[in-house]
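Technical note accompanying the year-one report. For the benefit of new consortium partners, we illustrate the data format agreed upon in the data management plan: each record pairs a sequence with a structure-token string. No post-processing was applied to the example shown here.
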Amino acid sequence: MLKKLLFSFGLVLSTVVQADDKLDALLSEIWQFELEIDPISATSLGVHQYDHLLPDVSAEGLEKQWKKAKSYLTQLDKIAGKELDSTSRINLLMQRYRLQDLVDQYEYKAHLMPITSEYGFHSSLAFLPRTSKFGDVKDYQNYLSRLEAFPNYFRQQMAWMREGLRLGLTQPRIVLEGFEETALAFVHDNPKDSVFYQPFADLSTLPKEQAAALQKQALAVIQDKVFPSYQAFHAFLENEYLPRSKSDIAAKSWPRGEEFYQNRVRHYTTTSMSAEEIHQLGLEEVKRIRAEMKEVMQASGFKGDHAQFIEFLRTDPQFYATSAEQLIKEATYLSKMADAALPQLFHLLPRTPYGVAPVPESIAPKYTTGRYISPSRDDQPGYYWVNTYALDKRPLYELPALTLHEAVPGHHLQIALAREMKQLPPVRRYTYISAFGEGWGLYSEYLGKEIGFYKTPYDNFGRLSYEMWRACRLVVDTGMHMMGWSRQQAIDFMLENTALSAHNVTTEIDRYISWPAQALSYKIGEITIKNLRAKAEQQLGKAFDLREFHDVILQNGSIPLDVLRMQVDNYLKQKVK
């Protein structure tokens, strides 16, 4: 009997190992496919065989990618029915998540809109000097090959945007006011002033003749290829795209728009919640946070009502930096304070450091308040970007919450830990699921309250304003895209309920209009993490260890929320035993 049991167990184990090995081989193949179709990302991840290429966004190229992705989904689904260990099951789910998004975006024709109110294919190219490899002459030649390809790449993108105009699949005109200037920001009288020339400014490590030849070639390519590409895109935006862009703001009005919006809800929240359910949840959260805001306002000693307090926060000079340097220094100081608090919250910390830097001037006017920029290579740090444009719209009382979200224990800590999990396949280390990552970022703001990070009632109100900001997103995003809300109605709702400046509110609303459903991920993810923590505290009582709980949340990298729930449930079962 024992022999039969051992034999049976051996067969099961062998089956699991075979399925795992087959999946690992397929994941490796798919990863190479993903690197090939996104050569810029490949370079930033240390894979250099595509360093001379830009993405192929031709009709033939995109169709080929779509067919290949569908084929891989079919292969994954066949393996999904096999016996897999727990890690392999998550690996498969994560790979499926990425491929399904590629397929969905192609089928809903998202490639016809390669711009949002704050981003575009043209501005993303400005990262090339930072992410490219520069060592020997071949590296510089590869980089120049990419610059040489700008005219064709821009033509392909503009062709898709023209198709979008024909089909009524465009960004709303209202959110693109002034957007054409983001193209001219990359054109200069002297090519040496271009961001694309930066790698050639100092070639002292190369022989003088080679260095001089490369610099001459770079100046010619930038003058003859790069600048004309941006000028052509500016003219296209000004003369064709903006005048004919759609007038209403709802994703619902796009072809298959309602279906596409629900698809984006599912992608960004990793839930099956409907727009109506999310809208109602947002209204409930707004009501709850508003009550907390009242308590903090009273604690500050302010003698007016909510609207007067908000006006006071938006206009009193004491809450604003007088120089970009002051704002960056304050963000840096807060970052070091946050660093010092990490041992209270985690057992495991990342080895990758991060810096603090201003948002580049070329994109700052329509860019969000702050953002985390991941390392482009293992020998580089991450960066916490702070927007220093319009200083009178960047209140200092919001900076503590922003720092915790974008730096540590928020995005930098979570993303750096995931990237350092060398035992996992690349699809796990480099995939970012918005519901998890942004939910963790918002939860990190809450952690500041527990570690005494908010020193004044104003700082705490800034935290609540940020939480309210994310709650309002649930209301205004679904409202504008599915329920007939106007842009002004959404702006007024945000102005009434948050302490964000009018400039920030307008910038954010335009971001939600042009990037449907992404803004829903923050609050949905944060609520999930808080609920899981409450469950752990209730079940474990005095045995609850906050640092251990956080390690459990982060130990698998960025994962869908249903997978996160299963991981925490498994942890609790083992802990109770």
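Partners are asked to follow this layout when depositing records. The beta strands are 354-358, 370-373, 382-386.
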